[in-house]
Specification:
Length: about 400
Amino acid sequence: MASRRLVVLLLLLIAVGALAQPAKAPVVVSSGTDGAALWLPAGTNLAGETVAAAIHRRFTACWKGFFGTPATVADPLLVPRTSDLAEGVFGAMWADASAALDESARPAALHALRSLVLGDPTPLVDGLARAAGSPRLGEPMVQDALLYLFLSEAVSDPTLLPEALPPGSGGARLKGALERRGVPYSAFLRRYAAWILSRAMEARLIDTEPGTLPAVWALSENLPPGGWTSSAFDLPDAAAAVDLALAGDGQDLHVLTFLSDASGRVLWSGVGTLAESGGLPLVPGASRLWVVLWNAGRTDSGAGLALTLWGDPTPPFRIREGSLEEGTLDLLLEERAGILDYSLFNGPPAGGSADLLGLPSFPSRGAGVNRYRVALGPELGGVGALFLQCRTRSGGFYQAPLHLKEPEHP
């Protein structure tokens, strides 16, 4: 009996001693963001400290980029022990910061932050899959995490995001931010839809069996508001461009065109109304053309519409006459529909991205035969070989050399 009591006493002493031992202190690190401190689980090694600080910095930067103000997060931030330290830091920050958002705005913001802060591909892929499987584009996608990702990637004005996000009921905050910048909401939706579709194509989420050119694509039924349909065409090797011709009425329809390479990477995209659609240049490496018809109007539209597509090696304009005298360029052009404007280059234009003569572009006068007189100035009278480049309303570029007639002198 005495020995049993001795054993019990020893066990009690051991237990009391264990309780008296101080708990292991958390690992305290600074994120480097305004001196904010993180209390990490005891035993976190140096690599874990580095990861935790990086997640804190990225979350802070993304939140401020989205909403314009710092995230309201505890300092020091107590990070719970989890199987994934990065998830633990993110979860602790989100739990604090999300209280500043309306409940309806939280899912989209959460998924966008996970994508940008943690590098989680799921929000983007799931959003693209929803869009590719949806019968409607545009307005339904405004409340999606894709909007945050699109604005972060495609918009150069960083002040737009805090004014537009969260987009608000019916996209009211987004519309207001665009209106203050003079950007039509409809034009924004076109860009947003083109971005979604190009990403969905690259992710192979749009299942379309490609055809060949020439081809006629006809709609037997109307597309509802926001409705869309797509076709794909393998490109012939000899074609330098693709032409589109319209038959039928589709006043509210927009044409979204995409060129992809053999791996599926989108090399180029353009958006325009049917009336604006003209020739489409084929960029080097393009092997497939995607054409999307999208009803951006408020009523059903498109039944009976037919698009004819064919390969075309020629630009959508022809230079009938051209002369340069005393610093003035005189051009007589035969033009097809869909040309937006022209630029002049001294030598072949590189990618259509810069006017080497430093002259402003001049607008097209529309389909038909038109004369243009462009003042180059006396100092530019001897610039050498000139090239004329047109920009189509669907976003393409074509160029042709100017063979100028020598001026006649008495």
